[in-house]
Specification:
The structure holds two protein chains of two kinds. By secondary structure, chain A is an all-alpha fold. Helix content of chain A is 59%, strand content 0%. In chain A, helix 1 packs antiparallel against helix 2. By secondary structure, chain B is mainly α. Chain B is globular, with a radius of gyration of 22 Å. Classes of the chains: A mainly alpha, B mainly alpha. The interface between A and B is large, with 33 and 39 residues.
């Protein structure tokens, strides 16, 4: 049924926690207008940056869980 | 004449889309397993569409722009919560899917019945899902009504139009079940994506030359519009963080999410979706730009009227053909998710309350029949809620989420090594909802800067722990985890 096993470890959970923290507790630190990035104010640019980063981070988690 | 063109375009698009949905299921026999979870055979693409359907709704289309227009930076919470929810889903959904596959679970409440061995708890969870789906369906209904009203250029009776739209959606759900809805989602997502990119790029360029220039104008006129103010009484930083956490935890507690999860072909499908879906969130940036443009071009809309912002701009400055196309995409964004939600609300009550708890609808024919009657009940309740409670689209979404997130403690603790007793989980859910009702009664949505949903959730967790672990002796689970592997 499930030929390749995935195993969540402390390491993979910690990696996944990074974007979660950035998009929750990190928000007060990014709550500003400048510097503007590609014309966007800093706060939405910061959020968009982490959204773009999340798939590669989760892909890394996926790969690591395969090997574990 | 303008109204005839715009409404004509909407009608054509709706008929073609629903036609595709009905065509897509023409050779599938409708037992409950097909009707509710699509025969558990959906691969990555179909599943993507169903899970993403949660995002591409009336709420995304109009509500997010409405908040960007009416409140500014608090609207950014929408970008964050979906992303956080998808990360959580990577870890949470595969075990839920395995359990559902092993025990042939059909609904979200079935999961609670399985994990806690209590049909009463399943019935309670079903009722909570049912009740808090009503404002969510109302949200979709309100979106459709706003769009039809604007596309009618004031000439259309919006009450009649909305009743018609709902009749359409009920007929569609009756005819096809979940599989047909997934087909309709294909068209919906494509059209909404095109419409959203258009309003987020073309509107700023037409009025200000570029999207970046919109921000310049916006910041010149409203310098604090893209940052959260320190004011804790209204949508400040603490509200933002608490709301992101609350909605991310509630994201997969919906009955329709359970249907989507169970319909997956494999747990790998779920993981791959969890990795890729955050990118879908970025389309909200376009919606915000549309909202900002509307704020600068047509200021002065207050309260729920802000939800109409960029559509009014299109109605005033563009051709009725274009208005019709954008409004059609928006109508689908309301009607397709509404179908999924109505179907989910109806099926949990028919299976977990009428069938399992009360023993009224035992055979699968009876349950399919009861589901269909309940579809009408949900549609009617949502209609009543629409007629009496007038709030913004985001306001409606937050009411729904405050309620549904109360299921999270029971869902997550069911994977704990020692589970709380079902009575504890039930007590937690009930206390959380009573707390929400008390806040609603006093008209409070924020306490000390914190979203009340988080306050209720905290109380819920505390009661679940107290009653679930301390008062009762723990009840062994119906079947130990991992026994059949």
């Amino acid at each position: 049924m499930n030929p390749v096993k995935s195993k969540t470890t402390l390491l993979t959970a910690a990696i996944a926690l990074v974007p979660v923290l950035a998009l929750t507790l990190g928000i007060p630190l990014a709550n500003r207008v400048d510097p503007r990035i590609f014309g966007m104010p800093f706060l939405p640019a910061y959020i968009a940056f982490w959204i773009l980063l999340t798939p590669p981070i989760m892909l890394a988690v996926y790969r690591l869980e395969r090997r574990a | 004449m303008n109204a005839v063109i715009a409404i004509g375009v909407i009608a054509t698009v709706l008929v073609l889309t629903f036609g595709l949905g009905i065509f897509g299921v023409r050779r599938v026999t409708m037992d409950p397993e097909q009707f509710i979870v699509g025969g558990r055979s959906f691969g990555a693409v179909f599943l993507w569409l169903l899970l993403a359907g949660e995002i591409y709704t009336s709420f995304a289309f109009l509500g997010a722009a409405g908040w960007a227009y009416g409140r500014g930076a608090p609207a950014f919470y929408i970008l964050c919560y979906g992303t956080v929810a998808y990360i959580l889903s990577y870890f949470l959904l595969p075990p839920i899917w395995r359990l559902a596959r092993r025990h042939d679970l059909l609904t979200g409440p079935d999961f609670f019945v399985q994990q806690y061995g209590s049909r009463g708890l399943g019935a309670l969870v079903a009722l909570v899902g049912f009740v808090f789906l009503v404002p969510y369906v109302t949200l979709q209904l309100t979106g459709v009504q706003v769009l039809l009203g604007i596309a009618g250029y004031g000439a259309l009776n919006s009450l009649g139009a909305v009743a018609l739209a709902f009749a359409l959606v009920v007929a569609f759900v009756f005819g096809t079940g979940l599989r047909g809805v997934a087909w309709a989602s294909v068209v919906k997502d494509a059209l909404v994506l095109i419409a959203v990119v258009f309003v987020g790029v073309a509107l700023p360029i037409r009025f200000f030359g570029s999207p970046a220039a919109v921000v310049d104008h916006l910041l010149a006129k409203y310098p604090h519009w893209t940052t959260l103010t320190g004011d804790t009484s209204n949508n400040g930083v603490i509200w933002f963080v608490s709301t992101v956490v609350l909605t991310a935890l509630g994201f997969f507690m919906w009955p329709q999410s359970a249907a989507a999860i169970y319909s997956a072909k494999s747990e790998e499908t779920l993981r791959r979706n969890a990795i890729a879906l955050p990118l879908y969130q970025l389309m909200f940036l376009f919606v915000y730009f549309a909202g900002y443009t509307a704020l600068l071009v047509m200021p002065g809309l207050k309260g729920p009227a802000a939800d109409q912002s960029f559509m009014l701009v299109i109605a005033k400055y563009y051709s009725p053909w274009l208005l019709g196309f954008v409004a059609a995409a928006g109508c689908l964004a309301g009607l397709v998710p509404a179908s999924v939600q109505i179907l989910a609300a109806a099926s949990i009550v028919s299976k977990n309350v009428l069938g399992d708890m009360l023993g009224l609808a035992k055979s699968s024919e009876d349950q399919t029949r009861a589901t269909r009657v309940l579809v009408l009940v949900v549609a009617f309740l949502a209609f009543m809620f629409w007629a009496f409670a007038k709030t913004t689209l985001v306001g409606l979404l937050l009411i729904s989420y405050n309620g549904i997130t109360q299921l999270f403690p029971g869902a997550v603790l069911s994977f704990a090594r020692v589970r709380p007793s079902p009575a504890g989980v039930a007590a937690g859910i009930i206390t959380g909802i009573v707390a929400l009702a008390a806040f609603a009664f006093t008209g409070t949505t924020i306490v000390a800067g914190i979203n009340i949903g988080v306050v209720a959730l905290t109380v819920n967790f505390a009661v679940t722990f107290a009653v679930g672990y301390l008062v009762n002796v723990r009840v062994p689970a119906l079947s130990p985890e991992g026994s059949s592997e």
